Amino acid sequence: MSDTTFDYIVIGAGTAGSLLCNRLTRNPQHRVLLIEAGRKDDYHWIHIPVGYLYCIGNPRTDWLYQTEPDPGLNGRRLRYPRGKTLGGCSSINGMIYMRGQARDYEQWADLTGDDTWRWDAVLPAFRQHEDHWRLDAGGNASEEFRRLHGSKSTGGSGEWRVEKQRLRWDILDAFAQAAQQAGIPATDDFNRGTNEGVGYFEVNQKNGWRWNTAKAFLRPTCYGRANFEMWTSAQVSRLLLEDLPGGGQRCTGAEVWTGREMVTVHAEREVLLCAGAVNSPQILQLSGIGPGELLQRHGIAVRRDLPGVGANLQDHLQIRSVYKVQGAKTLNTMAASLVGKAAIGLEYLLRRSGPMSMAPSQLGAFTRSRPGLAHPNLEYHVQPLSLEAFGEPLHPFPAFTASVCNLNPTSRGTVHIQGPDFRQAPAIAPNYLSTAEDRQVAADSLRVTRRIVAQPALAPYRPEEWKPGVQYQSDEDLARLAGDIATTIFHPVGTTRMGRDGDPLAVLDSRLRVRGVQGLRVVDAGAMPTITSGNTNSPTLMMAEKAAAWILEDSRSAPAQHAALHPPATEVAEPA
């Protein structure tokens, strides 16, 4: 850490930060420092797909956040996992490749006044890093599929591997057939711009291993570049700001706690905050950028009063319905004995398939909570297993779980610091089910689940609703039950949202630059003005791809603030 001046400082080695480092260090004249609060991704459970069970709730890989008691959840707190390792949440998430719906990006363009966020404009950014299994040599993909997922001539050639799952379950096949009988069409591609349908999710895996963004974008490319330096187990305490003549500020660097000392680092071009929808607003607020009243309450000097920092929190809340079944193989029964567990382990060891290759959810479906809606507003994650809560033992009876979430919640929450100490976790208040619309969708979605399960395709397995229970029928009962049993799908977004000029709650402009602060961008899911209609990891990668292009464009049009020369940089080891 002897050299502390760089062209770009990237804070957070997660989904967006890893891609940004890859793109920026392609130019050998750009010296880039990557700062990650967690450790390297050398923990074996990161890479075995089912290892998310051992990564979430583990201080080795998770920030261990919890929400505040939530009135919409009848006073419950939820575990709120956030990745704390190289790869960030891509190292502990569900590995599902999902772009969302075209209308999501049309809405972003309308909210920001910038057509570069429209569906046709973001497609090239998705394609740029995608490496889809159907476009492998000798693959059979239609011209339309190639238009959506890769080059018409060469197919997929990016770093972000997308593969089909390496297992199937009879009970999930029956659920898919029942969904079709209930009017949901079959689909083999959820990423065409309309994700309506039912089918197995495609996943970010490679040959049966989790494919996180550290493997995709940092190794081996960045590690071999002399202009790249990485600090792990290093937490940013605050950003450095200098006042500019005539008003405004410029971000010039950051203070970093290495575990032994506080180190000051400087950026000659830009600081890129990629710490996620929880940690990015926390860092901004600790630096004096945020709601003035909040900062003053905690004794932090207000450098830029931006009330939208930490506001607009959106998340997908899943309502887990559990059905006991008969005559079906489920993970509950397979993993009930030592012999069964040994067979599962042996299958993965020999073939990289079976339950150990499972994403948390295997089968997906997108549909409407009621007739007449213009677009699907529900997403199902269906699993051949059941348990009381994430992290608890499987039930001792065969069962499947059909989790359903409202894709477009109207409830909004906050992320706010609780004091000036950077080591203190922020207060996370999602305010789930705080609007009448969200409570109605919750009740309606449980009825959709019941309608699917009542179809003939599942009848041979005699499904019995174990949770929430058929005794609950009214809107009021079902909405209250949703509060009792619902959990997060870990999709927080929106806490540093972009927006139009003049929007008092817009933290960023449409190119992800912090308003009133030069040299500072936020590039992560917090920048989304509204949540995408699906899983949020891949849209975050797309945003980073676009941001990288803008940053490089700016670097060509404007010289660095300083012209200092620097010696070659290497990776910095973790503190002992």
From TrEMBL:
Residues 276-290 form the Glucose-methanol-choline oxidoreductase N-terminal domain. Its cofactor is FAD. The keyword Magnesium does not apply. Keywords: FAD, Flavoprotein. The keyword Cytoplasm does not apply. PROSITE patterns: GMC_OXRED_2 (PS00624). PANTHER family: CHOLINE DEHYDROGENASE, MITOCHONDRIAL, GLUCOSE-METHANOL-CHOLINE GMC OXIDOREDUCTASE. Belongs to the GMC oxidoreductase family. This is GMC family oxidoreductase. It comes from Comamonas terrae.
